[in-house]
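Suppose you are handed a protein chain with no further information: no name, no annotation, nothing but its sequence. What can you learn? This example shows the usual starting point.
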Amino acid sequence: MGKASRTKTDIHRRERVAAQRAAERKREQRNRLLIAGGAILAVVVIVVVFVVVKAGSGSNVAGGASNGPTGTALAGVVKDVTTVPASTLDQVGAGGSSLAKAIKPISGDALTADGKPQIFYDGAEYCPFCAAARWGMVVALSRFGTFSGLKTVHSSTTDNPANVPTWTFAGSTYTSKYLTFTPVEETTNVPNGAGGYTKLQTPTKDQQALMQKYNTQGSIPFIDFGNKYVQVGDLPMLGPANLSGDWTKIATDLKNPSTGNAKAVLAAANFTTAAICKLTNDQPATACTPAVQALESQLNG
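A reasonable first move is to predict its three-dimensional structure. Written in structure tokens, the prediction is:
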């Protein structure tokens, strides 16, 4: 082989080596880009999953689904419901019919907490009858103390009636110099896939004993007024069918005693107030007005 042939062969060999090295560098660059892209995608997926899980866990803690007002609108609705004037409540009075029979006298050891009469409530967020009852309870209890952390919720979407706008006591607090209020919301309004609803709160053994003694039918809502009175189920005039409109409309209507919402909610609140006044010896006078004391006489015992 001549010198010229060897030179051409060496050149071809060097060109092939150079081409192979260039191709190898391109493959390495592609691999690095694929690895980097995969890492970015993995981070995005992890972040999305974390946000979804975080949001889901938050809703479980807070309770069930709600399409109610938030922010400033919620604050306005809470104010309207918790500051109904005594004059408006007195004007409604019994609401045209007696609800006293729904609040029944019982005999037992006084139910107290922190040296004050205790009111125990047991219900569930899915329950339309609990939904109706909470409106009157919030109005009445606000005459003796202060709620914080009240949130809107609606009853079950599949019950009849469905989607009753209401409040949830889960996550709320109540302070009063006259009484204690101990609420339990046993489930949310979110189906659990097994024909029931997701668990939210569990009554204590003592609370379960109260219900076994005074609520043999197992109905909700169940309200024990210091072991002096109990209410099992909704008040007749404040069934869910008696409410009309959303949270804002109901709360606004409470300012006008001639509206159907006011007559239903405030009449129930007045009888609830009367039962509480029997526990507090008619204190405070701003709650236990002469009109309320007139209703007390309809409560047996």
